[in-house]
Amino acid sequence: MLEWMAASLPALMWLGLLFVPWRPWSTRERIEADPLATHTDLSEITVLIPARNEADVIGLTLSGLQAQGSGLQVVVVDDQSSDDTARIAATYPNTRVISGQPLPEGWAGKLWALEQGRAHVHTPMTLLLDADIQLQPGLLAPLLAHKRGENRQFVSLMADLRRTSFWDRLLLPAFVYYFKLIYPFALSNSGFRHVAAAAGGCVLVDTEALRRAGAFASLRNALIDDCTLARQVKNAGYRTWLGLSRGVVSLRPYGTLRSIHDMVARSAFTQLRYSSGLLLAVTALFVLAYGLPFLLLGSAATWRLGAVALVAMMLSYLPMLRYYRMRLAWALLLPVSALLYLGMTWSSAIRYWRGVRSRWKDRTYST
């Protein structure tokens, strides 16, 4: 009896995931660009872009902003770039380039750049935009309308990550899928205080809410700055919202397993609060959820339970594949992506134990 109950755990886990009310696998929280909404008055918004060695993409990012509407002001903080980032940015209209100061002790680079740029924002709303994010024409108008219609003070959109290789297709939609499992959008968007999440690449926020939440100085050392900021804004009494969008396009080329590994490993152990106990718990959870169903298939007594778990697992991934217009057969490889992400999390922990808290943009943050 106990053996059968243990064997049923993976099936119960995956079926439970499909039927929980907040539906973390769903793609219902979304905002898409409206190509006809390119004449909106955006004079109440200042775009704040931290940029460090982004000469290859900053032009596309700024061009995307030009196609959003009228009156939009842009502040680019050149974070000690050694390339032509500042020169290229300065050629775009309504764009002010700020020369960033050297990184002080105890600050993360992106947050220090945003802190310097904040002093140059004098509009009611601020759009925090990564330098490698291109907005499709007519994206800001529906985003602004949603913010006003839902009476939200903080709205953000998860970027559509480029998929140009086998590794991209295997791992990047799964990255968004796992993020939604950890931070269910429905719970984050509700009044539930214990779940707060954001996608830092594209955040439209009331400037006053930023100030009252203590951004950016109060989270100056945060490596997962987007979710930390959302939590502080929510704790300050404001309403947040997070969704998906194909109109927020990441220009960052990954393409290789190594590049995706570096992106994940820089903050995976941070997500676990540098806890070895949580790392072991996550490992056990992955083995139970992704590994045990395959073992159950080998037994005449439990193969049905294994099959139910695997079918439910893959069904939970199908909405994400449909949203990103990928072949549904990629669901068969979800256990492979889980194994790779678990390995990246261990790699992140090993880096930390060796004294490297994170490494990004030619900067190393020690433990």
Automatic annotation (TrEMBL):
- Entry superkingdom: Bacteria
Q: Give the record's keywords alphabetically.
A: Membrane, Transmembrane, Transmembrane helix
User: Is Heme set as a keyword in this record?
Assistant: no
Q: Where is the Glycosyltransferase 2-like domain?
A: 46-211
Signal sequence annotation: none
Q: Which Gene3D superfamilies match?
A: Spore Coat Polysaccharide Biosynthesis Protein SpsA, Chain A
One Pfam family of this chain = Glycos_transf_2
Segments spanning the bilayer are 6-22, 278-298, 305-324, 330-353
Quote the protein name from its UniProt record.
Glycosyltransferase
